[in-house]
Amino acid sequence: MSFAGKHTGEKGEALAVAYLSRAGYRIVARNYRCLFGEIDIVAREGGTLVFIEVKSRRSRAYGPPQLAVGLAKQKKISRIALHYLSETKLAQSPARFDVVAVLFQPGGPQVELIRNAFELCL
User: Any idea what the CATH number is for the domain that residue 19 is in?
Assistant: First the structure.
């Protein structure tokens, strides 16, 4: 990833955290890492644990940001989430997967929350 791409991702994650906090989510962890990879944000919304992938783009040249969360990425996030649930002994907790799409535009960033973006897939 280029420096510009990393910077875009970090800015996108910061915007996503602020957006989610305003929407009532309680952030539990950021950039949770394990041997399977990383989940951008783990949060709680009510009694539900939410695993959130943030995708940021500077343009729509390659489509909307959320399209980058394809089946392979969903499988990877699912494995990481299962590891998190096992490690934290929360395996019985209700959980779901959301995606936050951030598009940086000349008039300011556009943030979109996609709840229940995908189901657990292995």
Answer: 3.40.1350.10
